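Quick start: read one record
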Amino acid sequence: MKDDSGELKPASESASEFLKSISFLIEDNTVVIDDWIRDGAECSDPNSLLNRGVCFLKILEDKRSLNEDAKPTNIVKVSKIVIKAKSKSGKDLCLMKLNEKSHRLQFIGGTVRKQENYETTLRREMNEEIPKVHLAHKRDYTYSKITSEPLGISFVSPSYGSYRKYMIQYYHLDVNKEVDFHGSLRWVSVDEIENGQTDNGVKTVPPPNLFKSHLSEKVRQLPVSINKRIKYNPKSDSLGYAEKAKKDIDPEGVKIYSVLKSLTFGQAASIISFIIFLIGAFSGAGIYIGQVLANGGG
């Protein structure tokens, strides 16, 4: 906080101690976050908050994203493919792929690279993500836009941990070749995608509230991409997705209160000190720290 003269002043003795802690971290060149490599931002182990930067970032971004005017850290263009079928019992199914980083099932597709557009990205992703089927554009499949313009959807990325805005162009695929999708692909019911996870606990992307508000009805009204009826067992886990999710993710997600409650005092102090450091780095708190040290604290 600032006093009447406009100078930064700690709100309490504890705040002053935290500022001193930050100064000592800087002075000692202490590494607070051990690893900033992207590796999925869902972490069941509280110690991961300081061991893995994406986990710590996600805690901050989950909080920040609650603000109505929260700004995204990045705007990403994405092309996604909806391959639809019917189960033998008549359920609407979509083909999805497990993201090895976020451990979530998502529609086939990916980021639009430089010198690409949404359509060239779609065709590249078809070759990369379902290569064993050997589908050639026009010869074996055609596609059409599900929405006339890309959908702007903002949420905290389960892969990067940051609050991002995705400009996603969804396409419907019409396959005119007899194919058998396999490998790491899995048929997921539209009901499961609306619930945000499969019946055996594997989470899906996009988040269920966004899927229901923007896509659900459109997907249900689409014609099937393949005529073959799919033998579908929602409890089946032949690819081991549910086991991967249980091993690497707390299915209930990470709640800020429960994480902080489980930390030791030292861990909590380090986290809060680092947050204040981030704020201070942009607000001038560094100046105050120098003043505190020069005056011997206070």
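DSSP finds eleven helices and nine strands in the chain.
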